[in-house]
User: Fold these one by one.
Assistant:
Number 1:
Amino acid sequence: MSSQDIPEENLPAEQGHAHGVVSVADEENPFADPGLAPHEHRIQDIDERAAKRSERVVALLFTVSMLATVGFIASYVTIPRDKSVFVFPIGHLSALNFALGLTLGTALFCIGAGAVHWARTLMSDAEVADERHPIEASPEVRAKVFDDFRQGAKESALGRRKLIRNTMFGALALVPLSGVMLLRDLGPLPHKTLRHTLWAKGKLLVNMNTNEPLRPEDVAVGSLTFAKPEGLEETDEDFQNEIAKAALMIIRLQPNNIRDKQELAWSHEGIVAYSKICTHVGCPISLYEQQTHHVLCPCHQSTFDLSDGGRVIFGPAGHALPQLRIGVNEEGYLQALGDFAEPVGPAFWERG
């Protein structure tokens, strides 16, 4: 429906805005100003029932945004991090990530969609031409800005459309709670979890490749073997968290090549066990130089001397690699004689 189908007396009064001066092209001004097209009233301008329908649509969008924000918070608190969900045609996804993305996206989209629908159907759509003016803000300009602001506020009908106003304020007030809830990931504090690993007295050293316990004769001089604690399996739910702290490098040196007294005392027949986790940012160390007994972290080139207590000789790592004290049990298998004497991996703020 257009304004041509409505009796003139039913049309809203024009706001009195100037539409600019129409000009004709000539030699001095080759670009003519065609002026603005005649303004067409919308159905909401001439039918209060249509305006009410638009108002309810906007309020519904803002209400959905509020419900989605509540859903975001509920999902964050209740859905386990390790739960997965199948979403066609994508496949298996983290249920928590999927729920958070869906609810937060819906909350933000509905606020934006509600604001756009409000502007397109209920706010004034009259085009206004304004002449260029100097950049400096003169008293007249400031007065005009305030007048325009008051006029815009009046045309938005924010005071009259209370349902829109209240639901919009509710949606805008709840959305920031999504960000506040994310602060929950700053805790809980790690407390003692970073100080201890699965290694304990009597735990066998298990080869990561063969999944078999290691004997001293399995480790040749100059070789590098990776080990894990007995009982830790890749199918375990917390395998990644535990192996990130307990992964070992097993190297066999000639006893007379070990320069650090404690390292020699904690070894067995030249077999030393060091943490595989770099003390810089926690990357796994995997490069071993047989002649120098140095190991290199591939991430940032931190280099450690395994013949001298695992000390740092190059790179950004802050401290030496922790050594695990090992021995042999009655059956001839290599075993741990306790946990690491210090936390493995990079430093953390609670470490002291």
Number 2:
Amino acid sequence: MSTATETHHRTGGDRASARAFGPTVRRLRRWWPAAALLVLALAPFSALPLPGLLDGPLGSPGSLQLLATCLLFGALATGYDLLLGRTGLLSFGHALYFAAGSYATNTFLLEAGLPFAVSALLGVGFGIVLALVLGSVSLRVTGIGFSMVTLAFAQAGSILVARDPGGLTGGEEDRAAPAELLPSGLVGIGNTANLYWLALAYLVLTLAVVHRAVNSPTGRVWEGIKENERRVEVLGLRPYGFKLTAFVLAGALAALGGLVHLLLTGGSTPQTTTSDFTLSLLVMVVLGGSGTRWGPMAGGILYTWADHRLGDLAGSGAVAGLPAVLRVPLSQPLFLLGVLFVAVVHLLPGGLARLPSRLRTARRTPAATGTAESSNSRKENGHP
């Protein structure tokens, strides 16, 4: 049997195997989110050690706190992508609505003395109203003008928090919420698992809302606005209303995230009001893959994990023992994050979400090359 014939039979066998396993692969792709959710939900019951990834076992309080923070920011990046990746709106003020949900809830608790449930509803409601009011003004302009207006509003909010008017914000210091004012099941190290499940529920809710919104008729108009806003106007639709809907929905999800952050950290922090916070969200979205279903979530989780873990690496003894030319840059967590970001953007255009398709393409390329070589060899040997 000739080499060409062997190659032909081998290629045919590969194709038959691919056809046989095709339905199984499709089922796995369909059900993997449910399997991943189940694994995440059971994480607090696990004592699995993950050296290098986490400081302690998977179900330890410290590990669960870090994982909850990662899930929170994965959800927040997913909500922010409603503006950037779905509607084409580059907002530099998204942190304002996240901080509004946290600070408003904290203020209603401490100053008005309202129960937590009422304070939470009013705090998230305040964030939604703020997004509606500021969004209706910001969207009067487009392009870079819109970005600059949202940045101006965010800077004003950050300055307001720093000035501490009436002692309501705590200024440059964190403003803690007394434990007795928070739900007892969400306070203390012993309840870290409950906080983790709360962050997981927020992530699931955000993913569901964004998926439903993107696949609705309004979501298709958002896609049209991102591609060509003028064409949407020619079709007789008013882009302003659709953009405002996306802006308010993203702001509502951010305000809800601020509430979850308040419970995770036990207070409100002024760092969440800065434009740097929004820039971090932008990096998360680009890192994961803007405009994709799972990319912003993956980018948010990876960025948050790296932000925490690279800080530990920068201060480790291994780095301290390096020569100065290596020790100085590697001791800066932001430098390490920057290198990671540049590497992903350079090696994976389109973000982490494009990695599976690139791997599938890489697997198909050798097979296609082998088939072409087999065909050429058969022709050279006089076979049809």
Number 3:
Amino acid sequence: MKRLRWPSWMPIDPYIVLLLGTVGLAALFPARGTGADVASGASTAAIAFLFFLYGARLSTREALDGLRHWRLHVTVLVCTFVLFPVFGLAARALVPVLLTQPLYQGLLFLTLVPSTIQSSIAFTSIARGNVPAAICAGSFSSLIGIVLTPLLAAAVLGNSGGGFSADSLVKIVLQLLVPFLAGQVLRRWIGGFVARHKKVLGLVDRGSILLVVYTAFSEGMTRGIWHQVSPARLGGLLAVEAALLAVMLLLTWYGGRALGFGREDRIAIQFAGSKKSLASGLPMASVLFGAHASLAVLPLMLFHQMQLMVCAVIAKRRARDPEEVPGSAGESAAHLVQGQPQDRVLR
């Protein structure tokens, strides 16, 4: 059986380097005046196209097939949209000792973002876990997050998050949900084309995210908001995020055991339930936070790199675990989804 491999020689995701380079470019050469208007319009179009591709990629058949393993998917959704936000709300006690209010808002938004798909699948495969379950869990999380993340953000952040209102939710529907649904509707005609050109389209959607980052950080530079962040505050943010990631990794692993899941399922739960999606979070933050998006996405960018590095180590260690004995009390329910492609990667 073919396994996805994460390069052992690559401790840092090259895409994170590109993101940081884009931030540096925005700091040195921020878009101003007419250039800012053009960048903003291009960013809006790029976000819509990004979610159109997400809709065109998601296989409705695979999503429906995965419903048979509903206990695992509900567990991942609870971790992503209940436990994470609860810890995010609890972190309010760290303001202003470790975090400034804007950084806290970014941290809280991070906890509302859906889970990843691609890296969850990759790490689950490396660790010899339930790959089909990871595919479905990540897909469900991303799909539900398009609607649930903005609603949660409006509920817990209110007007402090950059002006959440009915207009913000309308923007979410028009820029994210409508393109996604259009991609799903057109999938039967364009699905083959998307599959054949997934590498090229992957470059397009990653380039779209870079454009979103450049636009957000350019606006932040022109408004002078970066003067609010000191090295000490960044250090405090990293410490808080490290603690948050550690707690979620422990809860997803030992909580999965307490719920009676086998090893393969617990691996999928740990990797899908402990991570947050940069690809989904950045466009949402751009729409929801507007001029404050640069500080709002900083915690997400840092957490994203941290989760990749930590989970790469965990996945390699899990791969050396002894095989589970078939028929044992904790046997994985992965056989319920046998026959689905094990090496397929979705974003």
Number 4:
Amino acid sequence: MARVRTGVRVVGAVLAAVLGASLAGCSSTGGKRAEDRARAAAEQGRPAVSTPRWTFAMVTHAGDGDTFWDIVQKGAKEAAAKDNINFVYAHDDQAQQQAQFVQNAIDQKVQGLIVSLAKPEALKDVVAKAVKAGIPVITVNSGSAQSAQYGALTHIGQDETVAGEAVGTELTKRGRKKAVCVLHEQGNVGHEQRCAGAKKTFGGTMENLYVEGTNMPSVQAALQAKLQSDPSIDAVLTLGAPFAPTAVKAKEAAGSKAEIDTFDLNPAVARSLKDGTLGFAVDQQPYLQGYEAVDLLWLYRYNADVLGGGRPVLTGPQIVTGADAAKLTEYIERGTR
């Protein structure tokens, strides 16, 4: 099934223009004090901070309709509103186009750059150009191993290998014996690390299943066929929240009794955790990734602050069960977890 990419093309066409324009302010966060301060500033017609109106660009490998990145953006936009930042976002799941968006940001002389490195080699040269041009760079979500090497100030996200290891340990605790790790984006180093980490600590056997993540019917068909061919599979791990419901459908169609587990949260995953349709989810706090990326760039420009001490600033993993999801429902429903 062909994928409609009109939204991404539009983003690419208008990026240069948007970079020079101010975005409408978003609601402030960062605790009640920050909210009150920002609200008072807005009422008085002045910014919440005294720093200039800098422009920060974020360029990610997100595909169209990926709810995970909606949450990342929400955090980034709310930090930007608090910090008087003009925030610009562009994305593409094709590394070549992602690199072009980074080049566009360099050409527009942004004051800060946030980049995800799902396919690091494809971004290596253009990130080096940004650093050489004096633009501070923070990597987010993917590429922790390459972040410092490429000249970034720090990396914000979870260590994908550690996250995978947490999954393997959890599956073992649950008595699972045979698992399938469903990779929906071939070439994504973070996905490979998750599955490898899970396999390392899992007491049973685990194999990878590569699927075409842009085609959900194809994903369901591939997983259904796998489950039908091997009834001994008792666990399925998906690497993104949008794929969990599809895995559930594949399980039901195959007549399988496998537990479905997933990375990341969204309202549908939270409901499925609470009703037992899903076993557990791995939360890496995407809102925090976006919020901290903008905030740390602002702190660097304002006060030359750097966090992490040369190591990634970790936002996960956290294993979320049905009981945990109930406690987080308010935040999940408003799109911040």
